Amino acid sequence: MNGVHGDIVELVHARTVEILSEVGFCVPEREALARLEAAGFPVDRDSQMVRITTELLDEALSRLPRDVCLHDRSGTTPLLFGRSSYFMGAGTPVNVLDLKTGARRPATRQDVRDLVRLQDALSNVEIVRPTVTATDQGECSDLVEIAEALRGTGKPVVHRTLAAERVDPAVEMLAAVAGGEDALRARPSFATLYCPISPGYFTPENVRCLLRWAEHGVPITLLSMAMGGASAPATLLGELVVINADILAWIVALQILYPGVPLLYGSVSAVLDMRTGLLPLGAPERGMINAGAAVMGRHYGIPSMCGGLSSDAKALDAQAGFEKAVTAVPLLLEGADIIYGVGATDAGSSISYTQMVLDDEFIAGLRRMMQGISVHGLDEEVALIKARTPRGNFLGTKHTRRTFREHWLPGILSRDAYETWQAKGDTIEDICRRRAQDLLANHQPPALPAAVEAEMERIVRRYLGPEFRFEA
């Protein structure tokens, strides 16, 4: 964003309002269209286009809650947004890189269970996603994924349903875990997320899902997936206008229909690679455009959830390291509240157990970098320097013994001498695989009360049939 935040924010906001007031956004769902028209939105029923007015915009922005947070499962420890960036597992492709063989294969319910437990064990992952789709569970896999996430972690969870009729059972499970729907509203440990089709369109089913979650007061992330050069202009500033219009339209709609519903400003946008026609998630521009989204979220006073820590690499290699860094650092610098991408590889089409473990180490190093140089009195250091100039040594001083522990030490990346490294014979993939296997073998997430698990099982069984069971 080049430090010109004020100018960019005002420009993007003004041009967004111009588009939404003159052209609007499409609402291809009859009941929602009628409700918006009754609430005062200018509606063209033939084109299904809805426009905003200055009065509706001002009213909606005045209703936006500015204290949105996510809690842990117990409801006692909130993640307070606006103070630091939190990291979240990616989601939810249908493929996984097998932990034993490294081969890409369809993801299963067991992968959902294992990847949730792995995120629970990783100290630098604060928010958990199912990360993969349980392809062996049929069209209601979303309920199974939510259930396994709630069982497998005490951390906040983010997921979605793909059909509106499954929102209510999902909320029933969430309320069972939270101790009732009032407790869920007061101390939410779950947020959902939905992506528009840029520019300006949600599918009818996604509209129905959005409205149903909003009725329950569950935090909703409006997650733009604009593609610069395809579904948005190729310039980053033009793409940011599309992202902002996608999100601001539904900020206004949801706040008018459901005043005070908690919302997050999200973007997993990128730019199209014109050579291949593919969407590269490891491009430097992805970090840049989503950092811009984080700035816009802060302008409206709501938390941001932005795609980063991304890679198009197919293995744990130099490409993955470069791309993970260039897509995460801009988000950290701009203070994105949630950075979405842990475990993602191959342009988000697969989740890797070993990449997830290595990402946890990357995050620790990035956080150390973001701490910067602490400012403190230098009397002790200056005295030491004077006493040891010239060519003195500081290794044996009490000051060094007391302070060196602030330096970051990796647990996976090697700093050994060449001969030591060669003798060990381990690749980073080998180390990450053993680490993932060890965590899965030994980490036990906090258990839910038996009565809560039984209630969740009953809820899912209504949809999947009497044979559905949780594994011990």
The overall strand count is 18
Describe the strand arrangement of the main beta sheet, using strand numbers: 6-16-15-13-11-10-9
In round numbers, the mean pLDDT is: 96
Q: What count of helical segments does DSSP give? A: 17
Quote the distance from N terminus to C terminus.
49 Å
Estimate the global geometry from the Cα principal axes. Answer: globular
Which structural class is indicated by helix and strand composition? alpha/beta
Strand content: 5-15%
- Radius of gyration from the alpha-carbon trace, in angstroms: 24 Å
Low-pLDDT runs: none
Q: Report helical residue fraction.
A: 40-55%
The largest β sheet comes out as: 7 strands, parallel
Describe, in plain words, how this protein is organized in 3D.
This protein is α/β, with parallel strands linked by helices and 472 residues long. Helices cover 46% and strands 12% of the residues. The protein contains 17 helices and 18 strands. The strands form 5 sheets. A 7-stranded parallel sheet has the order 6-16-15-13-11-10-9. α1 crosses α9 (236-257) and α9 packs parallel to α10 (284-300). The termini are far apart. The model has no long low-confidence stretch (mean pLDDT 96).
